[in-house]
Amino acid sequence: MAHRMQRQQVFSRGQPFSCLAYVHEAALRMPYGGRETARHQLEHLVERSEQPSTEVRAVPTYVDGFPGAGHALLYAHGAVPQLDTVQLDSAHGPEFTGAEAQLTKYRAHLGWMEDAALSASASRDLIRRVAREL
Questions:
Q1: Does residue 122 fall inside a structural domain?
Q2: What single DSSP character describes residue 119?
Q3: What is the C-alpha separation between 82 and 96, in angstroms, rounded?
Q4: Closest CA to 71 of 86, 54, 85, 61
Q5: 102 lies in the same domain as 125
Q6: N or C: which end of the chain has fewer CB within 10 A?
Q7: pLDDT digits (tens, 9 = 90+) for 89-105
Q8: Sequence-distant (≥ 6) Cβ neighbours of residue 103 within 8 angstroms
Protein backbone atom coordinates (compact mmCIF):
# COMPACT_ATOMS: atom_id res chain seq x y z
CA MET A 1 0.00 0.00 0.00
CA ALA A 2 2.84 2.39 0.86
CA HIS A 3 4.40 1.78 -2.56
CA ARG A 4 1.11 2.55 -4.31
CA MET A 5 0.70 5.76 -2.32
CA GLN A 6 4.24 6.88 -3.19
CA ARG A 7 3.65 6.01 -6.84
CA GLN A 8 0.74 8.49 -6.91
CA GLN A 9 3.15 11.34 -6.11
CA VAL A 10 4.25 11.50 -9.75
CA PHE A 11 0.88 13.12 -10.48
CA SER A 12 1.28 15.91 -7.94
CA ARG A 13 4.88 17.00 -8.45
CA GLY A 14 5.79 20.32 -10.08
CA GLN A 15 5.84 18.91 -13.60
CA PRO A 16 3.64 15.80 -13.64
CA PHE A 17 4.24 13.44 -16.51
CA SER A 18 1.58 12.94 -19.16
CA CYS A 19 -0.45 9.77 -18.86
CA LEU A 20 -2.90 8.23 -21.32
CA ALA A 21 -4.73 5.20 -19.98
CA TYR A 22 -7.06 2.84 -21.78
CA VAL A 23 -9.39 0.70 -19.70
CA HIS A 24 -11.99 -1.78 -20.84
CA GLU A 25 -15.54 -1.26 -19.59
CA ALA A 26 -15.54 -4.79 -18.18
CA ALA A 27 -12.69 -3.83 -15.84
CA LEU A 28 -14.63 -0.77 -14.69
CA ARG A 29 -17.55 -3.00 -13.74
CA MET A 30 -15.57 -5.44 -11.57
CA PRO A 31 -16.19 -4.49 -7.92
CA TYR A 32 -12.77 -5.45 -6.52
CA GLY A 33 -12.69 -4.78 -2.79
CA GLY A 34 -16.48 -4.51 -2.66
CA ARG A 35 -18.93 -2.06 -4.17
CA GLU A 36 -18.05 0.91 -1.95
CA THR A 37 -14.33 0.56 -2.59
CA ALA A 38 -14.90 0.15 -6.33
CA ARG A 39 -17.15 3.23 -6.37
CA HIS A 40 -14.47 5.31 -4.63
CA GLN A 41 -11.84 4.05 -7.07
CA LEU A 42 -14.00 4.99 -10.05
CA GLU A 43 -14.68 8.43 -8.59
CA HIS A 44 -10.93 8.90 -8.09
CA LEU A 45 -10.34 7.82 -11.69
CA VAL A 46 -12.79 10.47 -12.91
CA GLU A 47 -11.09 13.13 -10.76
CA ARG A 48 -7.65 12.13 -12.04
CA SER A 49 -8.91 12.16 -15.65
CA GLU A 50 -9.99 15.78 -15.25
CA GLN A 51 -6.38 16.84 -14.69
CA PRO A 52 -4.61 18.28 -17.75
CA SER A 53 -1.77 15.73 -17.61
CA THR A 54 -4.03 12.66 -17.50
CA GLU A 55 -6.39 11.24 -20.10
CA VAL A 56 -8.51 8.15 -19.47
CA ARG A 57 -10.22 6.46 -22.40
CA ALA A 58 -12.68 3.60 -21.95
CA VAL A 59 -13.17 0.83 -24.49
CA PRO A 60 -16.87 -0.09 -24.37
CA THR A 61 -18.02 -3.70 -24.17
CA TYR A 62 -19.79 -3.51 -27.53
CA VAL A 63 -16.43 -3.22 -29.34
CA ASP A 64 -15.26 -6.56 -30.74
CA GLY A 65 -12.02 -7.96 -29.37
CA PHE A 66 -9.37 -6.23 -27.32
CA PRO A 67 -5.68 -6.74 -28.17
CA GLY A 68 -3.71 -7.59 -25.08
CA ALA A 69 -6.79 -8.27 -22.96
CA GLY A 70 -6.08 -9.91 -19.66
CA HIS A 71 -2.90 -8.13 -18.64
CA ALA A 72 -1.73 -4.66 -17.80
CA LEU A 73 0.46 -2.91 -20.35
CA LEU A 74 2.65 0.12 -19.80
CA TYR A 75 4.13 1.71 -22.91
CA ALA A 76 6.82 4.22 -21.96
CA HIS A 77 8.05 6.43 -24.76
CA GLY A 78 10.13 9.51 -25.24
CA ALA A 79 11.93 11.60 -27.81
CA VAL A 80 13.96 8.65 -29.10
CA PRO A 81 11.56 5.89 -30.26
CA GLN A 82 14.34 3.27 -30.21
CA LEU A 83 14.42 3.66 -26.41
CA ASP A 84 10.70 2.97 -25.95
CA THR A 85 9.94 0.21 -23.47
CA VAL A 86 6.92 -1.99 -22.85
CA GLN A 87 6.21 -3.41 -19.41
CA LEU A 88 3.75 -6.28 -19.10
CA ASP A 89 2.49 -7.44 -15.72
CA SER A 90 2.30 -11.19 -15.28
CA ALA A 91 1.76 -13.65 -12.44
CA HIS A 92 5.53 -14.02 -11.97
CA GLY A 93 6.32 -10.30 -12.07
CA PRO A 94 6.91 -7.58 -14.63
CA GLU A 95 8.33 -8.33 -18.05
CA PHE A 96 10.09 -5.65 -20.10
CA THR A 97 10.73 -5.52 -23.80
CA GLY A 98 12.30 -3.00 -26.09
CA ALA A 99 12.76 -5.19 -29.15
CA GLU A 100 11.59 -3.41 -32.29
CA ALA A 101 9.28 -6.26 -33.36
CA GLN A 102 7.55 -6.21 -29.97
CA LEU A 103 7.33 -2.41 -29.92
CA THR A 104 5.72 -2.51 -33.36
CA LYS A 105 3.17 -5.02 -32.06
CA TYR A 106 2.27 -2.90 -29.03
CA ARG A 107 2.15 0.31 -31.06
CA ALA A 108 -0.46 -1.45 -33.22
CA HIS A 109 -2.37 -2.44 -30.05
CA LEU A 110 -2.35 1.16 -28.89
CA GLY A 111 -3.55 2.31 -32.30
CA TRP A 112 -6.44 -0.15 -32.10
CA MET A 113 -7.32 1.12 -28.62
CA GLU A 114 -7.17 4.72 -29.82
CA ASP A 115 -9.66 3.91 -32.58
CA ALA A 116 -11.94 1.77 -30.39
CA ALA A 117 -12.05 3.90 -27.23
CA LEU A 118 -14.61 6.50 -26.33
CA SER A 119 -13.51 10.13 -26.15
CA ALA A 120 -12.13 11.32 -22.81
CA SER A 121 -15.41 13.10 -22.05
CA ALA A 122 -17.60 10.14 -23.00
CA SER A 123 -15.29 7.88 -20.98
CA ARG A 124 -15.80 10.04 -17.87
CA ASP A 125 -19.57 9.83 -18.43
CA LEU A 126 -19.35 6.03 -18.65
CA ILE A 127 -17.20 5.78 -15.52
CA ARG A 128 -19.63 8.00 -13.59
CA ARG A 129 -22.54 5.86 -14.76
CA VAL A 130 -20.83 2.64 -13.71
CA ALA A 131 -20.00 4.16 -10.29
CA ARG A 132 -23.66 5.13 -9.77
CA GLU A 133 -24.76 1.58 -10.67
CA LEU A 134 -22.56 0.05 -7.95
A1: yes
A2: P
A3: 14
A4: 86
A5: no
A6: N
A7: 888 888 999 999 999 99
A8: 81, 84, 86, 97
